[in-house]
Amino acid sequence: MASRQVWRAVRNGKCFVSICQRSSLLTTGHRIQPIHRHTLFRQVAAAKFHTTTSCSNEHIITIQDEEDFNDRVLKNDLPVIVDFHAHWCGPCKLLGPRLESMIAGKSGTVILAKVDIDENSDLAIEHGVEAIPTVLAVKNGKVVDKFIGLRDDVAIESFVNSAIGK
């Protein structure tokens, strides 16, 4: 059996590192070059890192406490989609990025507020969260719609559009 090594391929400024067989090929037919530890550290040190949509988009917020929820969700002029989630929840991990990309595509007409139920259990209880993920649509300080569990993209898009009023 061939020895397994760590290989790298750099495409469009992104480094892809994987453990593969020595004979593995990229889809372009070029052999992947073995990576050396000192080379990797040098490349990481020189790399320019980019933030994800969830970090750089002001329309996606993380709620810290009840006062923050009142100020940023209930008193907001824009419609707010509230995602009650937990870091250990599998369906939450699938739903979260889909909600984020949908909200990012709405160009400032709606805000996504992410609430971790482990850190904000009082908020979860106050808003009747019995299972996660639970997603609320809040308009003018009132909950106007709600869904529980994982949904497909069409249902999520419809939910967000109804919150916006489209």
Report on the structure:
The chain has 166 residues and is of the alpha/beta class. The protein folds into 2 domains: 4-46, no CATH class; 53-164, Glutaredoxin. The protein is 34% helix and 28% strand. It is built from 6 helices and 8 strands; from the N terminus they run βββααβαβαβαββα. The chain has helices at residues 37-46, 53-56, 66-74, 90-104, 121-126, 153-164; strands spanning 4-11, 14-21, 33-34, 60-62, 80-85, 111-116, 134-139, 142-148. It has a 5-stranded mixed sheet with strand order 4-6-5-7-8, with helices on both faces. The chain has a 3-stranded antiparallel sheet with strand order 2-1-3, with no helix packed on it. The termini are far apart. The model is unreliable at 1-33 and 47-56 (pLDDT under 50).
User: How many strands, what sense, and barrel or not for the largest sheet?
Assistant: 5 strands, mixed
Mean pLDDT: 76
H/E element order? EEEHHEHEHEHEEH
Structural class: alpha/beta
Low-confidence stretches: 1-33, 47-56
CATH homologous group name of the largest domain: Glutaredoxin
In spatial order, strands of the major sheet run: 4-6-5-7-8
Give the overall form: globular
Feature tags:
single chain; 166 residues; alpha/beta; Glutaredoxin; five-stranded mixed β-sheet; 6 helices; 34% helix; disordered N terminus
Concise summary:
Keywords: Disulfide bond, Electron transport, Redox-active center, Transport. The protein is α/β, with parallel strands linked by helices and 166 residues long.
Topology:
Elements: E1 4-11, E2 14-21, E3 33-34, H1 37-46, H2 53-56, E4 60-62, H3 66-74, E5 80-85, H4 90-104, E6 111-116, H5 121-126, E7 134-139, E8 142-148, H6 153-164
Helix pairs in contact: 4-6
Family: Belongs to the thioredoxin family.
GO cellular component, one term: mitochondrion
Domain Thioredoxin: 40-165
